[in-house]
């Protein structure tokens, strides 16, 4: 399992190696190198470290479910905001806090921190969970698909099991359907 220090060391090494590849005529290297994606074994170790029920999720199904999100969201570190914000680091992040993304008033005033339970309720039906948000996704009815998707997001978005999130303010009460 990769830790933050492994990522930092990898980035430093990659930067050093990139500078070694510069041409004597002043041509720059191809750009900053990023660490390779986690191997399947590393992903499975990350999955196993997640709390239940996410530790038994199907990552491949979660990846397929993220296909529903991919047209609007990226999940890689440093990925761009699209129609929706980049989701890297979403767990433990206050709602409406991605730099450079323009959120609806509903999300700007939501006053909560994203966690798996909140994301599960959001994904079930974003419109009724937080009326007034601009997300056009109709929701994902199947609880197993949401578990798989959330586990995938945890593995892909830089979530570190055992980290504690910022204390949450009072949560909004979902509107009646």
Which residues sit in consecutive blocks of at least 5 with pLDDT less than 50? 1-32, 164-171
Which oligomerization state do the chains in this entry correspond to? single chain
Q: List how many beta strands DSSP finds.
A: 0
- Overall average pLDDT: 81
Helix vs. strand class: mainly alpha
Largest sheet: none
Tell me what the structure shows:
There is one protein chain. By secondary structure, this protein is mostly helical. Helix content is 37%, strand content 0%. The chain contains 7 helices and no strands. It has helices at residues 4-20, 40-49, 59-66, 105-108, 116-124, 126-129, 143-156. Helix 3 packs across helix 7 (143-156) and helix 5 (116-124) crosses helix 7.
Can you lay out the helices and strands and say which pair or pack?
Elements: H1 4-20, H2 40-49, H3 59-66, H4 105-108, H5 116-124, H6 126-129, H7 143-156
Helix pairs in contact: 3-7, 5-7
